[in-house]
Write a structure and sequence with these properties.
Number of strands: 10
CATH class of the largest domain: Alpha Beta
Helix content: 40-55%
Order of helices and strands: HEHEEHEEHHEHEEEHEH
Radius of gyration: 22 Å
Shape: elongated
Distance between the termini: 46 Å
Strand content: 15-25%
Number of helices: 8
Length: 298
């Protein structure tokens, strides 16, 4: 499914004042919260040095000391900088909306604002847009140029549409990145198929995972008004007609169970999960999400 135009609210000169203010606040909040949550959390082994009077004796590595025939202590340094990689689902299901903004447009704007905040914090940012393969990829880097490349890629309508292969996207990301990266997956997570859970588990062994589920309200519940509606499979030509009066409760329960399953799997893999409905402003959700992470890491 191809689209002719992608409408993104990225350029300050094109934003309305109230929208720009909200986006700017989000960027500043993210910059501060990102530093609080991630900076200085990790302690990395830096190497050995000879023990000196006054050093902490608990840091002595006796095996290394025997090999070197000298008393050695292990040195550590704070791991302060991160590589942040956005894995952006641009498949056909992300081209749906029941409002004035496609799911992929909502997601693209959010990614750009987060990338800007992370970049300002001094961390490297990268991104891959994927459907049933990588549409494009940007290797993690810092500076204005990386944001320009993110902006260019997410603004090109030719990069949107196609099938969906979540497992392949995870494996390509795993082979592309070095360890200690934060991988932020932005997707509606529709059409996952079987066995994807194991791939998330493998990813969690090397990376810190954050899943941002972007869903239209119709991905969560059906209209409350009665009548028949046509439901279409975004990845095939299959259509079905249903009576909302008879199926709305069952549909809502099934969608809730699906969302909870996704959340539980990411939490089990020591990751994080956040549902972002496209008919709600993401600012409050994002701020609360990172504040919660910050408290959990204290």
């Amino acid at each position: 499914m191809a689209i002719k135009e992608i409408k993104l609210d990225l350029a300050p000169e094109l934003r309305k004042l109230d929208v720009y203010s909200r986006r700017d606040v989000l960027s500043k909040t993210m910059e501060g919260e990102w530093s609080t949550v991630f900076k200085g959390r990790g302690i990395e082994f830096a190497g050995f040095r000879v023990y000196q009077y006054g050093d902490d004796a608990s840091l002595i590595d006796w095996k290394a000391s025997l090999r070197a025939n000298d008393t050695l202590i292990r040195e550590f340094e704070e791991f302060k900088n991160f590589t942040v990689f956005f894995l952006f689902d641009v498949s056909d299901s992300m081209l749906f909306t029941s409002t004035d903004k496609l799911k992929c447009e909502f997601a693209a704007e959010l990614i750009y604002v987060l990338a800007d905040a992370i970049n300002k914090g001094g961390d490297a940012v990268g991104m891959a847009m994927f459907n049933d393969d990588f549409v494009n990829k940007i290797y993690p880097d810092i500076g204005a140029e990386i944001l320009n490349r993110v902006r260019s890629n997410i603004s090109d309508p030719k990069n949107y549409g196609g099938g969906f292969n979540f497992k392949k996207a995870l494996m390509l990301t795993r082979s592309l990145l070095q360890k200690k990266a934060v991988v932020i997956i932005v997707s509606d997570f529709i059409g996952l198929g079987d066995g994807w859970e194991r791939y998330v588990e493998m990813m969690s062994e090397d990376f810190e995972l954050i899943a941002l589920m972007v869903r239209d309200r119709r991905d969560i519940e059906l209209p409350r008004t009665g009548g028949q509606y046509m439901l279409k499979n975004p990845f095939s030509d299959e259509n079905i007609y249903i009576d909302v009066k008879h199926y709305s409760k069952l549909y809502k329960e099934k969608m809730h169970a699906e969302i909870m399953k996704m959340q539980n799997i990411f939490v089990r893999c020591r990751g994080d999960f956040l549902l972002l409905p496209t008919d709600e402003e993401p600012l409050g959700h994002i701020v609360k999400f990172f504040q919660k992470r910050s408290k959990r890491q204290d």
